[in-house]
């Protein structure tokens, strides 16, 4: 579902509802397919903070949402490469190219995105330890 959302009187942002927050368990991941984006996405719930990245591994054709999540890191199920879910940066060989990350946040009971890339809104990063990777 797409929702037009005005942050200020001069700015109208299109919000896309991804799912209900309760549908992604703590420490879990869910694949999301959107009409508004050509590639599948992976939505993570890490300690109550949601993160959204492209689901397809940059090393080969594998779904990261089928991999193992350890802390902030998602391990690819095909060759064991890994990515930081906050930054998209590869953290384990053979992955060497970052996956795209998208801004995602909670609006009431829903998880939404505007599909813009970049840092999370302040409310989302407030509980995140600063590991210097941004
Ligand atoms: S396809 Fe993901 S590490 Fe090779």
Rg (CA only): 14 Å
Shape by Cα distribution: globular
Question: What's the count of strands?
Answer: 12
Strand order of the largest sheet: 1-2-12-11
Structural class assignment: mainly beta
Order of helices and strands: EEEEEEEEEEEEH
What is the CATH superfamily?
A: Rieske [2Fe-2S] iron-sulphur domain
The domain count comes to 1
Describe the structure.
The termini are far apart. Mean pLDDT is 85; it is low at 122-134. With 134 residues, the protein is mostly beta strands. The protein has a single domain, classed as Rieske Iron-sulfur Protein (3-layer Sandwich), CATH 2.102.10.10. It has 1 helix and 12 strands. A 4-stranded antiparallel β-sheet has the order 1-2-12-11, with no helix packed on it. The chain has a 4-stranded antiparallel β-sheet with strand order 3-4-5-10, with no helix packed on it. It has one helix spanning 122-125; strands at 2-8, 11-20, 29-32, 41-46, 49-54, 68-70, 73-75, 82-84, 90-92, 101-102, 104-107, 110-113. It binds FE2/S2 (inorganic) cluster.
What's this model, at a glance?
This protein has about 130 residues and is mainly beta. The chain has one helix spanning about 120-125, and strands spanning about 1-10, 10-20, 30, 40-45, 50-55, 70, 75, 80-85, 90, 100, 105, 110-115.
